[in-house]
């Protein structure tokens, strides 16, 4: 279970303080597929980075399964089973896709197993296993490879920041299938996805709506989704792939 207690995140611009996350508290139970949505600039990515340890909150406390992880580094959190997929995935020059999958799995997985992960995300494994994770990969390919690494890791808490960003329609439909499968196979872990996409919001157990760095709504997906569709929160992107 993930607990955020009174989390605030401020930055200083010139002489003034900008409040990005404001006294935010929430709980994500195990076995939950939670989607965080909200208008652009509402603080979603910042919150995801705070959970993953990429940003340090100005104040507040983060607990994972009762353990205070507020001051744990990204690496320590990763070792505790938190994984994070960036909105803009990172490239690793000199590393091949197979190396990245083995690093993620934490063991020497076979070619066949690595192929399975790539096939899951709709990539033809033979074409990609030995490709370098560099700028020759398109944004969409990189995104799918990053999702494959999260499948390989089997983490306790997986966080995806706008997984739909920059991928084409075919990949998007594939992505929905992956998330539906993850949802169906969820065991003691939890999944947090930042998304504006109606198809992703539809499979959420819970939806959290952020506005101005605060939780505006948090409840069962079936209760929140009807409230936010066709409002400012659901955003134009929501129907982009329909
Ligand atoms: N380090 C920083 N310094 C200054 N401003 C920041 C910093 N990090 C985030 N912001 C600002 O905080 C606000 C929230 O940013 P964030 O990326 O968390 O929003 P978001 O809800 O994920 O937006 P989007 O839907 O556009 O991805 C934005 O106005 C952003 O410009």
TrEMBL record:
The keyword ATP-binding applies. InterPro entries: AAA+_ATPase, ABC_transporter-like_ATP-bd, ABC_transporter-like_CS, Molybdenum_import_ModC, P-loop_NTPase. Keywords: ATP-binding, Nucleotide-binding. One of its GO terms (molecular function) is ATP hydrolysis activity. The keyword Transmembrane helix does not apply. Signal peptide: none annotated. Residues 2-237 form the ABC transporter domain. This is Fe-S cluster assembly ATP-binding protein. It comes from Selenomonas ruminantium.
């Amino acid at each position: 279970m993930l607990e955020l207690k009174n989390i605030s995140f401020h930055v200083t611009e010139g002489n003034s303080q900008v409040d990005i996350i404001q006294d935010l508290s929430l709980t994500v139970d195990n076995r939950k597929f939670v989607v965080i949505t909200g208008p652009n600039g509402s603080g979603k990515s910042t919150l995801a980075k705070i959970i993953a340890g990429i940003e340090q909150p100005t104040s507040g406390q983060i607990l994972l399964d009762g353990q205070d992880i507020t001051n744990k580094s990204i690496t320590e959190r990763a070792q505790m089973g938190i994984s994070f997929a960036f909105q803009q995935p990172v490239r690793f020059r000199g590393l091949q896709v197979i190396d990245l999958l083995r690093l993620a799995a934490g063991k020497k997985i076979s070619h066949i197993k690595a192929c399975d992960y790539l096939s899951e995300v709709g990539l033809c494994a033979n074409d990609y296993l030995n490709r370098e994770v560099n700028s020759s990969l398109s944004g969409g390919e990189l995104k799918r490879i990053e999702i494959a690494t999260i499948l390989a890791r089997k983490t306790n808490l997986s966080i995806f920041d706008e997984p739909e960003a920059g991928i084409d329609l075919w990949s998007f439909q594939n992505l929905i299938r992956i998330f539906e499968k993850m949802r169906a196979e969820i065991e003691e872990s939890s999944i947090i996805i930042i998304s504006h996409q109606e198809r992703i919001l539809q499979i959420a157990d819970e939806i959290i709506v952020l506005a101005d760095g605060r939780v505006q709504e948090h409840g069962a997906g079936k209760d929140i989704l009807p409230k936010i569709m066709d409002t400012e929160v659901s955003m134009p992107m929501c129907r982009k792939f329909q």
